[in-house]
Amino acid sequence: MAGNIIIIVLVIMDHHLHTPMYFFLGNLSCLETFYTSDLLPRMLVSFLTRDRTISVGGCYIQFYCFGIPTIAECYLLASMSYDRYLAICKPLQYAILMSRRLCFLLSAISWLCGITVMTLLISLMSDLKYCGPHEIDHFFCDFTPVINLSCSDTTLVTLVSLTVSVIDSVPFLLTLLSYINIIAAIIRIPSSDERKKAFSTCSSHLIVVSIYYGSLMFVYVLPQKEALREVDKIFSVFYTVLTPLINPLIYSLRNKEVKRALMRVVNKCGISK
What we know:
mainly alpha, 77% helix
């Protein structure tokens, strides 16, 4: 969480990072801080006190606050890949096409999609009844473990969830399409040094996309089998805990501009001599 907060502060305070790429990176850090703050405190309390109880309302709130940034991140990653596509494939038109207004619009759409989808799902789930058992087979309130406990008819909410999942696959396809075009453009660059430089501008984002979507697909796309249940929990840890932890490291360790921005902010604040 601290790494994401540092990136947010750097993007706000350092004018050298006031570019579309770092604007989206700051938004990504906000999303990951949001759902880490939703899950980790409750997990730590449960671990330290052995109190693993949570009310139905509390469970819905946790799922709502977790679902919004999770869905929004899919759309934001697509926006980031589009930004890299324009930077590499249309460099002369980049400043015009990726305007500040478009950056704000893409970011707002990402958040709005997350809020809209989760509000719809929670409104449908709130009508369900739970007769028992009351033990969730997961370390947080995710959709499937909660729905499985309901004694009501879950056909409608399940159908809506599947429809939403299909719609939310669009940003993944757009991300995939963007990187197909990016890789094709990089391959066509004659100079090996230029190819390396071009690839370095999107390699960090490609790593983040691979980890995030790889984890999501394993948990939500593969068939829900008893044998894979424990493995699903492990991969859930990847995108809920490990991804927000390693993303700042991936972007900062592979990005000289972020390192220089950190030094400038540190010096500006008078922390260093």
